[in-house]
Structure formats: structure tokens, C-alpha cells
Design brief:
With about 230 residues, the protein is of the alpha/beta class. It has helices at about 10-25, 30-45, 65, 80-90, 125-135, 155-160, 165-170, 175-185, 190-200, and strands at about 55, 75-80, 95-100, 110-120, 140-150, 200-205, 220-225.
Length: about 230
């Protein structure tokens, strides 16, 4: 990804303060419907493995559980941000949650049947290590279910410029372009390339225009991936 201006220290402080507002706001309006559809797609794909352990990395405020029907039986969440986990637990009391990053988890090799990542991989500055760790903890027949924004795509960028960018500028006066490029350090095409180095991509669903299989014309993309071979890293 090409270089962009960096956010100021003041913008980063403000960003940390307004994350809750933005994360909830992103699920409103037309773009919010697309994001919810991504959650629903991942939930549908994960249903056959409901009786097995399901881990969500980067679980945030718990939006995935909000849009997951029926509810999971053996779900637990992982996030590096303790404040996110506190918010998650307040919305979903009793849910097993763990603080930590996805680069090095305390989970045993091959212990997880399904790993879920929703609107998270675009944020990871060391994506390769994360993918290798997921490959390690997945069982030989495990699945890696992913929902991504089409970062770098035409429609996604247009939608951001028409919705979240003016919203954030008007409400907070923040340099949203700088924040976005700081937070979204991986574009979709780069994430897909790195995924293919470690996993076999079994299925791709484009949202909402499945008849146009391009990340330029769909703001959300869901992927179902499996281990390339049964040997753990």
C-alpha cells in the first residue's frame, strides 16, 4: 500500500475515545446492512461446527454475537483491547473472553475447529504471523472464516468518502483519511494473497453483488479457508 500521511497524536487520542461511537454507527444505514450481512454469512458457514470450539479473533464490542442467530454453543472471543472486552462483556454477560493478540495465543495446537475473523485482518500490522498462528491452532479439518471490507476497492472507497468520512469530520473534526490508513494497513488484494500462501480458499462470497465477483464492486467479502495440509506449523 502506498504511503499516506500519519495521524497526529491528538487525532489518535481522540480516535481511542470515540471508537465505541464509530463501531456502533458503522452498523447503521445501507453500509451497515452490508456489514451485518457479512456477520450473517459467517454465522451460516459456521453452523455445521456448532458443537466444536469456535474462536473469534478481534472480537471487539461483540457485534458478531448480536447478529448471530442461532446463538453459538462453544464460542469464545479474543481481543488485544481490554476496553473493547469490557464493552463486549457488558453487552453479552457470561461470554468467555480473553485478552491477547492473535500473533501468539495460549491455545493448544490443533484445538480449534473454527476460527472467525470479522473486519479485523485489515488492521493487523503483522498479518503473516497471525495467519501462521491460526494455522497452528486449527484442527486438521478446521475452518478459517473471514469477513473483510474491500479496502482498496472502488465502491468501498467511494462509500467511505460519502458516509463515514464526512460524519467523522463534522462530528469530531478528525483527520479521518490519516486515521483510516493508519488503522487499515492491509488492502483486500494483499490479504487475499497472504491467505493463499498458507490456506486453501474454499469459497468466496461477494456482498451484495455476488454476480459481480470483484472487490471493486462489492464493499464486503467473505471467505472460507482451510489448512493446505494436515501438518501443523
Amino acid at each position: 500500500m502506498k504511503k499516506h500521511r500519519q495521524p497526529t497524536r491528538e487525532d489518535l487520542i481522540l480516535w481511542n475515545e470515540i471508537n465505541r461511537d464509530l463501531l456502533d454507527w458503522l452498523y447503521t444505514g445501507i453500509s451497515g446492512k452490508f456489514q451485518i450481512k457479512g456477520h450473517q454469512t459467517i454465522r451460516k458457514w459456521s453452523e455445521p461446527n456448532d458443537k466444536e470450539n469456535i474462536l473469534e479473533i478481534g472480537c471487539g464490542h461483540g457485534h458478531h454475537l448480536k447478529f448471530s442467530i442461532p446463538k453459538y454453543k462453544k464460542y469464545f472471543g479474543l481481543d488485544i483491547n481490554f476496553n473493547f472486552l469490557k464493552e463486549f462483556f457488558s453487552r453479552n454477560p457470561g461470554t468467555p473472553l480473553f485478552q491477547g493478540d492473535a500473533y501468539r495465543t495460549p491455545i493448544k495446537t490443533g484445538a480449534i475447529k473454527t476460527v472467525i475473523s470479522i473486519y479485523n485482518l485489515e488492521h493487523l500490522k503483522d498479518l503473516t504471523n497471525c495467519l501462521e498462528e491460526i494455522n497452528r491452532i486449527l484442527s486438521p479439518d478446521g475452518e478459517f472464516l473471514i469477513a473483510l471490507p474491500s479496502e482498496g476497492g472502488f465502491i468501498y472507497n467511494l462509500g467511505r468518502n460519502l458516509t463515514s468520512k464526512p460524519y467523522m469530520k463534522k462530528k469530531y473534526g478528525i483527520d479521518y483519511d490519516a486515521i483510516v490508513h493508519y488503522e487499515h494497513c492491509n488492502e483486500y488484494k494483499d490479504i487475499l494473497f497472504m491467505l493463499k500462501q498458507i490456506f486453501y480458499i474454499e469459497k468466496i462470497k461477494y456482498i451484495p453483488f455476488s454476480i459481480i465477483p470483484s472487490y471493486h464492486f462489492n464493499p464486503i467479502i467473505c471467505l472460507k479457508a482451510r489448512k493446505k495440509n494436515p501438518m501443523f506449523l
